[in-house]
Amino acid sequence: MPYDADKTRAMPPVGPGGTSSEQTTKITPVQVDASTEAWPSEEPDSNEPTIAAALPGVGFPAGDAATEYMKPVAPPEPQPQPQPQPQNDTGVYGPVMIEPGEDEARPKFNRRKALIVAAAVVGAFGLLYGLDILVSSGNVPRGVTVAGVDVGGMSHGDAEKKLRDEIGPRLSKPVALKAGDVTAELDPKAAGLELDWNATIDRAGSQPLSPFTRVTSFFTSREVGVATKADDTKVSGALEALRPKLDHDPIEGTIKFEGANPVAVEPHDGQKLKTEDAVGAVVANWASGSPVDVPMDFTPVKTTKEGVEKALNEVVKTAVSGPVVIKGEGKDATLTPEQIGTTLAFAPGEGGALNVTPNKDKLAEVTTPQLKDTIKEGKDAEIVFEGGKPTVKPSVDGLDLDWDKNLQPYFDTLKKKDAREVKFEYKHTPAKVTTEQANKMGIKEVIGEFSTGGFAPASGVNIRVVAEKVNGAIVKPKETFSLNKYTGPRGTAQGYVEAGIIENGIPGMAVGGGISQFATTLYNAYYYAGMKDAGHREHSYWITRYPKGREATVFMDNAGNSLIDIAFTNPDDTGVAIQTIWTGSSITIKLWGTKNYDVTGSTSGEFNPTQPQEKKVNKAGCTPSNGAPGFSVTDTRTITDRRSGQSRSESRTVKYDPQFKIICEPPPGG
Known about the structure:
By secondary structure, the protein is an alpha+beta fold. The strands form 16 sheets. The protein has a four-stranded antiparallel β-sheet with strand order 25-35-34-26. Strands 36, 37, 39 and 40 form a four-stranded antiparallel β-sheet that branches. It has a three-stranded mixed β-sheet with strand order 1-3-2, with no helix packed on it. The longest helix has 30 residues, at about 105-135. The relative contact order is 0.06. Keywords: Membrane, Transmembrane, Transmembrane helix.
């Protein structure tokens, strides 16, 4: 190995256990003479190991062979050299021998050994990887399941056979659905669901090339599912057909009674089918053999099962544990546990609680019959017509139980298990119209009246019932009278019958029909009495027995809600009484009071005519008609105040629709 006399040579620090940043390399400066050999003495210093000794087994011979190997090579021919400069802080010129410490000789050997081992491992792994690909070529990847069936590592043919054997029987069976708290079954054939066997096998896939995937497949499984032939429209239709069973409104927790026994009703969230999402879930999972979770929209409830149970155990069971005695004025009432149960009301509270409160109306309903002898019904003063003249029927003050004051003491008593008695308080209810007030109202003469006739027998029944209800009604000064408010609901329970009405411009039938004739008669009576109109509506088309522009209709639905009303306001300081006179062919209404006004009315001629249209009707009882033109009229009322002599006029324009030309057709079904 040649050596350059003006160069420095150093060995890297190597220790027995590898490299270390803390180890120190010993540097020995050497003075070199050009006439001497370039290498130091062949004899190693006893305290400084030679390179051969420090690096056994890494390409250097051992023993004498090493010594021979380490002999210096003859130096090259001397060449003129520049003046040497100091090479280190010792001030010595020439090369420096760097000698390794005892622990600085092993890292190169360990790194080489590690590289050899790593190469061997990689080679072995590559051999196994190639062998694995060769052996499993053409098979389904390891760990693959299809609809829960393990086909990993099988040939495609064997995998298809296994799938047909295990999945095939499922395909004709109903598909179990789980929709929230409801279960149902779906007919796959009706929903148009079929399995695509070829696509399902293809979905299982081929061997992966990734070494990582191949290794992990020994320890994991992968579900790929089936491929389905499906018509989303059919699947959607089949799910929609199940909606009545799957959907339900939220059910708040409450307590019901079976006789006197209280039973908790658990709360349930409301749910509605999410059809589009449900189609995807069914198509993806119908052949899995497990119930398919159907996506739903949920409406949460406020109560919880725990809140209901607490109300049941801590309040209700004690409330109905025995009877309660209610002590009245001279008479007592005893409520049984079953009756007590009907007086309790339940409503959601904070934090999922179920609040229990007493129901005032129900308490009065079960208590009043037993205490009716201690109660006196109040009555307002009335005007009765005897001998054709108004007479005041005296008022009666009422005495009734004070339900607002009695409610809480009653509920407190229900919370006791003994001493279950409670004293009820009473209150006096003075008449709204006293006898004295009625006598001072100045109801002494007729101030307005009107009559109509020509009604059908069924309409006549309803007119008689409403006339009996209104007869004698008093309208106090500045007070407004509403027909619907005064009569209340007009159904069969109140004595009304089915009679003719006009509905959407077409004759029809309804309970309470014919009351519009009473309303028209009332309108004209207060029209001529000088009362202030507080609201009314004309019929959609003109009925020949009524004055043009001076008629009215009314309507209430089956629940007793006022939809079309008629009302007037008494503008004077004197009162008004309503008298009704009914016969089988006519109705007359008179308003009594103090006559302060003279009234006249005039109606214009018809203008803006419109022609009738045909309308085909297929309802039973249809009556054909030729129809009639529509038109508009203007009615003008002139009112002269007798007290001041001043007059004023009021005009109202009414537009009547044409009456349809009715063509009757057979109703559905003949």
